[in-house]
User: Fold this.
Amino acid sequence: MPAIKSLDELKRIREEALKKKEMKTASGSIQVIVAMGTCGIAAGARDTMKSVLNYIEENKVSGVSVTQTGCIGMCEHEPIVEVVVGEQPKVYYRKVNAEVAEKIMKEHVQGGKPVESNILPLQV
Amino acid sequence: MQTKRAMILVSNDPESIRLGADDLVKSLNDALAAYELQDEVDVSTIGDVGRADILPLVIVYPEATVYGPVKAGDARYLVEEHLYKGRVATDLLAPPKQLSGHIGWLRTRKGYNPAEQRVVLERAGRIDPDDIEDYIAHSGYEALGKAVTEMTPMQVIETVEKSGLQGRGGAGFPAGRKWRFVRGAEGDKKYVICNADESEPGTFKDRVVMEGDPHQVLEALAIAAYAIGADEGFIYIRGEYGVAYQRLEKAIRQAEEFGFLGNNIFGTDFNFHLHIHAGAGAYVCGEETALIESLEGKRGEPRTRPPYPTTNGLWNKPTLVNNVETLSNVPAILRNGPEWYKAIGTPSSPGTKVYTIMGNINFSGVIEVPMGITLREVINIYAKGMKPGSTFKMAQTGGASGSIIPAALQDTPMDFESFRKAGVSLGSGALLICDQNVCIVDLVKVLLQFFRFESCGKCTPCRIGTQRSYEIVERITQGQGQLEELDKLLEMAAEMERASNCGLGQTASAPVRDMLKHFRTEVEAHIRLGICPTGVCPMVVEEEAAPA
Ligand SMILES: Cc1cc2nc3c(=O)[nH]c(=O)nc-3n(C[C@H](O)[C@H](O)[C@H](O)COP(=O)(O)O)c2cc1C
Ligand code: SF4
Assistant:
């Protein structure tokens, strides 16, 4: 990455980054986002993350991107996981331990049916 | 207080009262009782809302629907429509115009909570903190680019000044003015420091910012460096913040790669190098001069001031020290302009405030709200009410150096000016909400325990004062208290405030003062009657509590 030398260059990089993001959602692919602030980690988000990655590897799931994010302020509900399927609205899950994570992967990510028991009702 | 599902706020500035606000409150309460909603809905008042044309004004939460003018005769209709049937009473709606007074921004509904407005936490929890491109995709580094390519350092400073941004590290000092001081200080080498020591008990707002959006802190530091003429900076971060440290470190590497840090930023001749330094766990090192000593590799003891860091800071060079949250407001201010920023919050304290909320409430976590919101609103709306069976007794702001807020101040707007007038402080941004089962003496004992432990010992009033105050308060919890000793506590408080070298000693007795001002009866019950009304204190000298 050569250093950015002007605002125009920054704009270009920004557009490219936005395009990349759009591609992630538009192509019907799936994003799983694990909140990994200290609160999330303390509540067990690392195990959650491991469980998600294990599931993907063991079941040879493709088309799923797994990323992390910070705390959105609801430390009480951690570990929090967001699932975005294509252009559908984001689904937030609360108290996602390794087991629940596996369930989400199986039923929501692969099966297309959100796991009602752990949904965090949010309007974002 | 029970968990309420809604709250009605009625304006009660003099003009509203002249127009019948008091009758309106009464009629609203009657109407609620008629529909048996009195346990579900709270009626409360707010001061000047800055709109003379629609008074008396009524705001219904959580929707933040604004009605006005509302007459006492409308109360029943309003309650029936909005709270009983659950639909907006359209014909009473206030004509749309941004409120300019207190809680102006609460009208817009956005984000997770009813009226949460995020500036500092705009991206936290929404982007991948380890991915600089995600930050750039969300307008990241635009403000820096704009500053260094299109603005002079003085223009940057003026913009920050105009925005009215005040320090969020505790003291509320105008940020722009501080920047101007450092810019104007003599010296060819200057430094910027981000104070990320955050060691107040219960406060972790800065951590959430750094973990969720580290690049925002870096961008702000680079802007500040450009404005004051520094080419080197430090982030002094609390030692326990491992995750934040790693994220910041990674962010610095990425920013260097992209050319946002280092030499010739955005192709200009502006250079800025940023380092990160972890503290070793002393609360006093959050005090800016102790922090500077610690950075220099010395023992973390506050310096004697003046001179101030703005002229004689790190290695005796002019140095800007700002809190994480203060800095994190800067990129948005530069992107959107100072007028935009000033429209948030109150006229005397523009912007938002990030709070960590906890205690006997239904929801604990982190919120970002406009300055000027009241404690009652925070509890009822954001904290989803007190826990079942809990009644509000008091709140403690800002960890140890904050104030104890009694129920009487629940409706005071939380901004720097209103709190100063009420004799309390916003502290560092933690809100510990306590119910009727918390003993004031026990709470103050815990706070003093913290201070006597964290006092650096450099000056006598603080070193001895925190210890002796603790001993007196501890004796009260053991049923050994004496009434005369309460006067002694106040005497010591006055000496500590007057003669301590730094903010720690100067504010350590604030909880003692608050306790004796608002809860004297409860304290005296311990002494005169030998009982702890809440049943928290042992009221005997327990073995492990006895002096060794
Ligand atoms: C004992 C003590 C501890 C402090 N701890 C912190 C802290 O952890 N973080 C912080 O930003 N400011 C802390 N401060 C305030 C700083 O001295 C300083 O005022 C602040 O960093 C200035 O930044 P601001 O103008 O952006 O608020 C502390 C002050 C005292 C007296
Ligand atoms: S007031 Fe307390 S913490 Fe501050 S310098 Fe004096 S002894 Fe140290």
About this structure: Residues B 284, 302, 455-459, 462-463, 500-502, 504-505 surround iron/sulfur cluster (ligand 2) (CB under 6 Å). Residues 84 and 90 of chain A are 5 Å apart (CA to CA).
